[in-house]
Amino acid sequence: MASSVPSIRTLSKFAFGGAQVLLGGGQAVRGGPSQTCPSPQLSCHNTTVVENLCCFNAPGGQLLQTQFWDAEPATGPDDSWTVHGLWPDRCDGTYDANCDSSRVYRNITGIIQNFGKTDLLDYMSKYWKDYKGDDETFWQHEWSKHGTCISTLEPECYDDHKQTEEVVDYFQKAVDLFKTLPSYEWLSAAGITPSTSKTYTFQAIQDALAAKRPGVTVTLGCKSGRFNEIWYHYDVRGSVQLGEFVPANPDGTKSTCPQTGIQYLPKNGGGGDDPAPTATTTIVVPTSTSAPGEPFTGKGFLNVEVDGQNKGCIISKGTWYTSGTCATISAAEAGSGFTLSSSKGNCGVVSGALTCGGSVSNPTGFTAVEGKLAAGGNAAWSADKDAKGSTQETVYAGADHSSKVSIVWQGV
C-alpha cells in the first residue's frame, strides 16, 4: 500500500465519491461511545457531505482486522491465529499513519489496567503477540501508527473524555472483532490445516473463509510462499466504538500469496497433519472402542465430559478446548496399562497437570477405569474452570480443582 502521513488534526477537507467530507474544526457534533449517532452513513459509501467525523470514519473509512500466523518462530497458541492490529485504510487502498504525535503512549499495559480491563489485557497477552517477545512495544506501535488515525477515536468525540480512554476502546474493538473471526477453525472446517507436507491453493483458502463471510474476499499474506497473514476488511456504519462493522471487499489488490503451492506450516514443529473431526465446532459424543478396564488402543480422541455431557476435547499440548481441533492421540500397550502421545510428544502428568510434549521425558502409564482415562488408578480429573470457546484450560489429575471432568476415548 502507498502511504501518506498528514495529521488528521491539520486536514481541513477531502473529497470522496464526488462529495466533500469536512474534517476537524469546531463543527462536529460529539458522538462518542456514550451517544448514538443519528442515521449514520456507511463509510466509503457516502454521497453527501459528512460534517460529524465522530460518527463517520474518514479519511480512514475501511477498517481492517489483521491477523498473524507466526510459525517460525511460533507465537501464540498452536491452534489459533493471533492479532496483528486494527487499521484504518482510505477507501482507495492508501492509508495514513502516525497521525497524532501528542498521543504516542509508551505504557499500553498501564493504560488498560487503569481502566480495569484486566480481562482484555489477559486476552491480549495470549493472542496479541510479538514474534520477538516484546508485546508491549508491538501494542505501542499499533496504537501510534493506526489507532491515532481513526477519526471516531479522537478525544473530542467523547462526552466527559477521560485521558487515554480511546486507547482502551481501540484495543477492545480489535479484540472483539478478532473473537468473531476464528481463522484457524474456519480453515480447519474446510480441511485446510497446518502441515509440513501439504500445500494449498489461493482459491481454496479464499473459499474456506468466504463460506463464513459470504459475498466478500479477504487479503491473504504470504512470505516466501508461506501463509502468514489474513486481513479482514470492513466498512463501518457509525463510530468504531459503537458502529456496525459491515464485511467488505479489500480496498485494493493487496494479497501476496501465489495461486498454488501455499505452505501453511504448523507452529512449534508439530506434525500438523492429525485428522480432525468433520466440523471443528462440533465435538461428537464418543463411543469407546475399548472394553472397561482395558487399555485404549490405536488412535483416537480424548473427549472431555462434564456431568456425563461432552464438553470438548484434549488438544495436542494436553489442554482442554471446546472450539478447536481435537488432537489425534496414539495409545500403546505398556505393562498393565498404556501410554499416550500426541503430535507434540509423549503425554504424562507433569506437576499434576495432563501434558503432552518435550517436557514429558518418561510417559505416564495410564489405565482405563469404566471406560474413562485414569492416572494412578484414579479416573477423576479437574480444571480451575470449564473451558469455553477458544480459551484453553489445564486439566489436572484428581478432583482438587473446581471443575470436575472425566476423559473418555473416541477411536478413529
UniProtKB/TrEMBL annotation:
* Signal peptide residue numbers: none
Localization (cell): Cytoplasm; Vacuole lumen
User: Which domain of life does the protein's organism represent?
Assistant: Eukaryota
The positions flagged as active site in the entry are H84, E142, H146
Q: Keywords on this record?
A: Cytoplasm, Disulfide bond, Endonuclease, Glycoprotein, Hydrolase, Lyase, Nuclease, Signal, Vacuole
RNase T2-like C-terminal domain: residues covered = 295-410
Q: Which Gene3D superfamilies match?
A: Ribonuclease T2-like
Q: One MF term in GO for this entry?
A: hydrolase activity
Q: Which Pfam families match?
A: Ribonuclease_T2 (PF00445), RNaseT2L_C (PF25488)
Major location category of this protein: cytoplasm
Q: Which GO terms describe its cellular component?
A: extracellular region; vacuolar lumen
InterPro entries from the UniProt entry: Ribonuclease_T2_eukaryotic, RNase_T2-like, RNase_T2-like_sf, RNase_T2_His_AS_1, RNase_T2_His_AS_2, RNaseT2L_C
EC number, UniProt record: 4.6.1.19
Q: Which GO terms describe its biological process?
A: RNA catabolic process
| Function statement | Rnase which modulates cell survival under stress conditions. Released from the vacuole to the cytoplasm during stress to promote tRNA and rRNA cleavage and to activate separately a downstream pathway that promotes cell death. Involved in cell size, vacuolar morphology and growth at high temperatures and high salt concentration.
Please report which protein family the annotation says this sequence is part of: Belongs to the RNase T2 family.
Designated name of the protein: Ribonuclease T2-like
